[in-house]
Write a structure and sequence with these properties.
Number of helices: 17
Strand content: 15-25%
Number of domains: 2
Strand order of the largest sheet: 6-3-7-8-9-10-11-15-14-13-12
Oligomer: single chain
Radius of gyration: 23 Å
Shape: globular
Distance between the termini: 51 Å
Length: 495
């Protein structure tokens, strides 16, 4: 009771504080930009790119090109070798180790300055929910964060590295440690299936009120709970009231989750990454994530259709438009400069700045010039599932360029809870929704370049099996919604 009262009081204080940057986003972006340049002037990167001459954004554009991890790798390798003040003053506090799809293992630097912003943003997302809804009872129960192992290692130079979720686990405030689960021992289990089994046993008799994690892996936890208790999750955990997630679009999972839980539960979407914490859902009942403009990150944006051009136009926050798909570009207090994180976003509000994550610039299908993006396939799947009252567990899409018979097509690999009787009608609605969203795809269908899409059912737990086989089961790993080849498609076990 005392916890919930204190949480409500604290949420009011933080809300008043955050109103300053929410109402003045461009001013705080300008301050962030100036601070970043000033602090990094005498780093190796700052010297290489004439930071001492940079007076405004146009100077920055002229001196700092857009780079992905490969572009910054030479600087990161210097840091891994022990050199200080390479991208940001001093040495990194941590490296977040991630497995990139094209760059292999990546070591994303996290500075003392940037670590603070990760923690603050996660805290504020929950406090904002409390302030907006008046609901704080969840703080009185147990909380679980399904995440990677918190076991960390050290570089030769003594800098700690590991998964971001594992690093963050070391920063749980003392007042939350008693209510936080799983135990340290269970959290350190590396094998995901073994870990989930252990967490089910540990949490089975607890008063779970908040559950957080990537939906596909939380789903696995829920299914094992139901198997053990023979009860819906919402009945097993009667006080479970808040689901916090990030990393993927929740909407395709929502019907399945409502079935597993047995009732509606409030949810909050987050947009964190190793490179920074960018946004969180500030209106609990509305889609759209509040962009954090006072979190040590200066944002730039490139229109997705212009991204592959030579020297594409870069836009600041004050120049963005509604309903335009942008590639997100970052400069941060960890020393990432003009950094292409690979995510694409679309603004749904400009006052304040709210966005949705639409996919990955590298995750698309354009085998025939159609340039289909994640947002389009997710919208189509959401509408088709609603129309037919169908629940799915996971899906991905790939082109079939050389079919044995007939025209090429897009193949949708879907793990259904129950395969629909009218699967042809389901596929037809998916296709029509895709045509309505993407005129290039429609032209290819009408021009007889492509046939309409094909739905291929995947066996039960087929996606889990695939992720296990490639060593990416659980944690922060996600199945790509789209691939421009069949590297994933050809390895999926189909019915």
């Amino acid at each position: 009771m005392i916890k919930s009262i204190m949480a409500k009081l604290f949420s009011k204080i933080i809300h008043q504080k955050n109103k300053k940057w929410i109402n003045n986003p461009l001013e705080f972006q300008r301050k962030t930009f100036n601070n970043l340049i000033k602090k990094a002037t005498y780093t190796d990167f700052g010297k290489d790119h004439n930071f001492h001459k940079i007076k405004d954004y146009s100077d920055f554009q002229a001196e700092v090109p857009i780079r992905d991890y490969e572009g910054l790798r030479p600087y990161v390798e210097k840091m891994l070798a022990g050199r200080a003040s390479v991208l940001w003053p001093g040495k990194p506090l941590y490296f977040a180790k991630t497995s990139g799809t094209t760059s292999g293992v990546k070591y994303i630097p996290i500075s003392k300055d940037s670590m603070t912003t990760h923690i603050k943003a996660a805290r504020d997302s929950l406090l904002n929910y409390i302030y907006k809804t008046g609901k704080a009872n969840f703080v009185n129960g147990k909380h679980i964060f399904l995440q990677g192992s918190p076991i960390l290692e050290k570089t030769k130079d003594g800098i700690t590295y590991g998964r971001l979720s594992g690093i963050v686990a070391h920063y749980v405030p003392k007042y939350l440690q008693k209510s936080r689960m799983p135990s340290w021992e269970n959290n350190c289990i590396d094998d995901w299936e073994t870990k989930v089994d252990a967490i089910v046993e540990e949490t089975f008799s607890e008063n779970m009120t908040l559950i957080a994690g990537i939906p596909s892996w939380v789903q696995m936890y829920f299914e094992k709970l139901i198997e053990k208790s023979n009860l819906p999750v919402g009945e097993k955990f009667k006080n479970f009231s808040l689901f916090v997630y990030g990393g993927v679009n929740y909407e395709p999972y929502r019907p399945m989750f409502e079935k597993l839980i047995g009732r509606k539960v409030d949810s909050i979407e987050l947009f964190p990454a190793s490179e920074g914490f960018f946004a969180y859902q500030d209106q609990p009942m509305e889609r759209g994530l509040l962009l954090l403009v006072n979190n040590g990150i200066f944002y730039e944006f490139i229109k997705t259709e212009e991204f592959w051009e030579n020297n594409p136009k870069r836009y600041t926050l004050g120049q963005v438009e509604l309903d335009v798909n942008y590639v997100l570009i970052l400069s941060t207090t960890a020393g990432l400069w003009g950094y292409n994180i690979g995510d694409t976003v679309k603004f749904v509000s400009l006052l304040p700045y709210r966005l949705i994550v639409t996919g990955r610039i590298k995750h698309y299908i354009s085998a025939f010039g159609e340039h289909v993006i994640s947002k389009e396939v997710e919208t189509a799947m959401e509408e088709a599932c609603k129309h037919f009252a169908i629940q799915i567990k996971e899906f991905t899409v790939a082109p079939q360029i050389n079919p044995k018979v007939g025209l090429p097509y897009h193949e949708w690999f879907v793990e259904f809870e129950k395969i629909p009787v009218k699967i042809d009608e389901f596929a037809a609605l998916l296709d029509q929704t895709m045509q309505n969203q993407n005129i290039y795809y429609q032209d290819l269908i009408l021009g007889k370049v492509l046939r309409t899409l094909v739905v291929t059912p995947v066996v039960k737990s087929g996606f889990q099996t695939y992720m296990k086989n490639i060593g990416k089961l659980g944690g922060q790993n996600k199945v790509p919604r789209l691939s421009n080849d069949r590297k994933i498609a050809d390895k999926l076990p189909i019915r």
